[in-house]
Design a protein that fits this description.
The protein is α/β, with parallel strands linked by helices. It has one domain (2-190): 3-Layer(aba) Sandwich (Rossmann fold). It has five helices and twelve strands. The strands form three sheets. The protein has a seven-stranded mixed beta sheet. A three-stranded mixed beta sheet has the order 5-6-9. Strand 11 and strand 12 form a beta hairpin. The longest helix has 13 residues, at 178-190. The radius of gyration is 15 Å and the shape is globular. The two termini are 14 Å apart. The relative contact order is 0.19.
Length: 194
Amino acid sequence: MLIGVLALQGAFREHRRALAKAGAAAREVRLPAELEGLDALVIPGGESTTIGKLMVSYHLLESVRELAAAGLPVFGTCAGLVMLAREVVEGEQPLLGLMDIRVRRNAFGRQVRSFEADLDLPLLGKEPFHGVFIRAPWIESAGPGVEVLAEYQGHAVAARQDNLLVTAFHPELTEDLRLHRQFIGMAASLTPWR
């Protein structure tokens, strides 16, 4: 299992480390050629506008969009959730537009309003998942094909649709590998996706 981690900006090193601990080989992706041979892709947290502009500059936006539309499993965290969304509530930025969700960027507030919270995430079992929220988005609305996996204060903060998995928080900043393992298992069940 070879999982790419988009490495243009944000917490890509932490994702690569978490994937390795969870038992998957990981490769940093900065150019379209580095998408070749991947079984899955992670789009990390960071600044979604910057990530979107860099994806355009490096000719990755269309490549990732085409691969994900063809079935490549993709896990987007925080800014990665925003990138996968069909629509953002405010502002204009490049999006992959693959997941039938409408999101609000920085929904919980600015950097100083960042927080941590235990989340009920039944997909992972009974033990709560400790979510790290940094200038986090939330899912404002989701289409009928989207399964909401977790909520915080009435707002959807984790979801999946077909080959796509998203969280508004940063699982890579904890020692809890359950979400990374879940994604690896999801990717394995969808492989070969081509």
